[in-house]
Amino acid sequence: MRDADSKLIALLKANAREPTASLARKLGLARSTVQERIARLEREGLIRGYTVRLADAGEPRRLRAVVMITADPKQAERVATELKRMPEVRSLCAVSGAFDMVANVEAETPAKIDAALDRIGRAHGVTRTVSSIILSEKFSR
Questions:
Q1: Topology of 57-134 in CATH?
Q2: What gap in Å lies between CA 54 and CA 95, rounded to an integer?
Q3: Which pLDDT score is estimated for 3?
Q4: Where in the chain do CATH 1.10.10.10 domains reside?
Q5: Closest CA to 76 of 87, 88, 92, 65
Q6: What CA–CA distance (Å, rounded) separates 96 from 94?
């Protein structure tokens, strides 16, 4: 990836709605060049999409948890498939270390998050879980 592409991506991460002309000025490039670079990065899959981050007041309070998962290595793909069907599981990452996967879980109530954690623990191939409820987010980028 070119240095200009890295700078462009950093600017888009900070504000994906920033006008192309403003991005071009900051990068010292022509507006059409910036538009072409964005289109190319999207085609190549480096930019997969754009998102909206709501302020706390903009969405109902949701409980969040991080779940560290140990899985039978022969069942890891099946575990991922089963967890993907659970709407409370917002993301699942493979990790190195003492655990095999990390799931980010969200639910509206303590009862719903408890039920989701129980379903994760019962998923075929899961041998152990350790969960932590997120109390507050200090920052997010």
A1: Alpha-Beta Plaits (3.30.70)
A2: 28
A3: 85
A4: 3-43
A5: 92
A6: 7
CATH class of 3-43: mainly alpha
Q: What is the pTM of this model?
A: 0.67
Residues of the chain with CATH 3.30.70.920: 57-134
- Phi, psi (degrees; rounded to nearest 5) at 120: -65, -45
Encode burial over 89-98: b for 16+ CB neighbours within 10 A, e otherwise: beebeeeeee
Cα separation, 39 vs 32, whole angstroms:
11
Would you give the distance in Å from CA 64 to the centre of its chain?
A: 13
CA dist 125 → 36, 69, 81, 131 (Å):
45, 10, 11, 17
Cβ atoms 18, 11 nearer than 8 A: yes
Taking residues 61-87, report their average pLDDT.
95
Which of 116, 118, 124, 122 is closest to 87 using CA atoms? Answer: 116
Alpha-helix residue ranges (DSSP H) falling in the chain: 3-14, 20-27, 31-43, 76-84, 110-122
User: Helix, strand, coil: what percent of the chain each, to 5?
Assistant: 45, 20, 35
